[in-house]
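Students often ask why inverse folding is considered easier than folding. One informal answer: many sequences map to the same fold, so there is more than one right answer. In these notes we will look at a single instance of the problem. The structure comes first.
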């Protein structure tokens, strides 16, 4: 789910284009409805200077706030503003662009979901993350990731694949409160770490690996009622057995805290193959 340098710079470019478009729409509205806006402080100063110097009045495109009534509502409702042809054209373009953006994001989520289901099968466990809390913490930067899009795509893909294969499947959500996957080791030891620590190092069994990879592996040993995330429990015995098998553990350098969860919205992994009796 991590975005590479090209995707990041493309996103920054798009964001800048959006801001510029918004600015030019605002300028256009002010230009066609100058009576609805106040002059900015600099414009007022300039107007006074010209008057004092005996120069003729100059027409400004007002850069100040909207003229409002006592109750802070605009004197004239925005819907009664005159809008130029270029404004309408620009606004239609912006609407089209944002539809395209939503579509791109959704297509990408579908591709990632298809890839995950193809690799790990249609029976998946993800952490039941509280997106509202994330939105409170990270605000608008969350928009770039739209973390709700992937679980939705994953759920659809897994259910469809399971139906096709005539097996059980779908996405089960596991409460992070009862499992604390990122804080545990496969050996059962509680290896507490901050959000910024991206590498798991267990003092007890010596397991070292990417924090997310370890959490995802642990998720494969979670038992949970499909409709009740709070019933999730970690099967430590099965996890310890999983530790016996040689696994590839990739390490990544630590990241600053604020980039933590937003980079990796969900974790998914294969259900453990049942141990032979
Ligand atoms: Zn351990």
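Output (designed amino acids):
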């Amino acid at each position: 789910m991590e975005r590479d340098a090209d995707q990041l710079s493309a996103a920054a470019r798009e964001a800048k284009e959006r801001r510029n478009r918004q600015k030019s729409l605002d300028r256009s509205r002010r230009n066609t409805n100058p009576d609805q806006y106040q002059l900015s402080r600099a414009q007022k100063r300039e107007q006074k200077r010209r008057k004092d110097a005996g120069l003729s009045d100059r027409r400004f495109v007002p850069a100040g706030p909207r003229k409002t009534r006592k109750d802070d509502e605009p004197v004239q409702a925005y819907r009664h503003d005159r809008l130029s042809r270029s404004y309408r054209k620009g606004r239609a373009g912006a609407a089209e662009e944002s539809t395209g953006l939503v579509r791109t994001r959704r297509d990408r989520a579908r591709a990632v979901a298809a890839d995950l289901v193809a690799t790990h099968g249609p029976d998946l466990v993800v952490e039941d993350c509280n997106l509202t809390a994330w939105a409170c913490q990270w605000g608008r930067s969350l928009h770039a990731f739209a973390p709700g899009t992937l679980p939705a795509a994953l759920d659809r893909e897994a259910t469809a694949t399971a139906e096709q294969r005539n097996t059980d499947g779908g996405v089960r959500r596991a409460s992070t409160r009862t499992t604390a996957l990122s804080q545990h080791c496969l050996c059962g030891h509680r290896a507490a770490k901050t959000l910024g620590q991206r590498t798991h190092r267990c003092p007890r069994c010596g397991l070292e690996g990417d924090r997310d990879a370890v959490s995802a592996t642990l998720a494969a040993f979670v038992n949970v009622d499909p409709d009740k995330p709070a019933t999730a429990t970690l099967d430590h015995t099965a996890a310890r057995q999983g530790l016996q098998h040689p696994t590839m553990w990739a390490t990544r350098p630590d990241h600053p805290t604020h980039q933590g969860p937003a980079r990796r919205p969900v974790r998914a992994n294969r259900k453990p193959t049942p141990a032979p009796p």
